[in-house]
Specification:
134 residues, 78% helix, 5 helices, mainly alpha
């Protein structure tokens, strides 16, 4: 799934002679996907557990839910990004993925790119639905 997202970015940017930027874009998008999936799992778990076990933070009036959510997302990004960077962002791995992609026929490349896009959009949809049921 993540390889296909890298290929999607590579296919989009290769046309503009910015194929190397696909590595950074892919790592960022993979990180976002992981955060969205973690958020979805968290939302679903919260929905089905006894809410008396959840730690209630005191309402100071200074921290809104939106601000706390943004801080948590930023912390998750800071933690997850280097891990994804070490796996998918290293030069050898990126070259391996894109070389396989370049060796595919054009219709296969289009299918792989489309699947990467669908995985990303699907992750967003799953995340939104799981948050809405909360």
């Amino acid at each position: 799934m993540f390889d296909k997202l890298i290929c999607n970015q590579y296919a989009e940017l290769k046309v503009r002679n910015k194929g190397d930027s696909a590595r950074t874009n892919g790592v960022v998008l993979i990180t976002v996907m992981i955060i969205l999936l973690l958020t979805s799992v968290f939302a679903i778990v919260i929905k089905f557990i006894n809410k008396t076990h959840i730690i209630q933070l005191p309402n100071t009036g200074k921290l809104s839910g939106k601000l706390v959510g943004g801080i948590i997302a930023l912390l998750l990004f800071i933690i997850i990004y280097p891990i994804v960077q070490s796996i998918y962002g290293n030069t050898d791995r990126f070259k391996e993925i894109t070389a396989k992609f370049d060796n595919c026929k054009l219709d296969e490349q289009q299918q792989i790119s489309k699947e990467g896009f669908v995985w990303f959009i699907g992750t967003i949809v799953i995340s939104v639905i799981s948050i809405l049921i909360l």
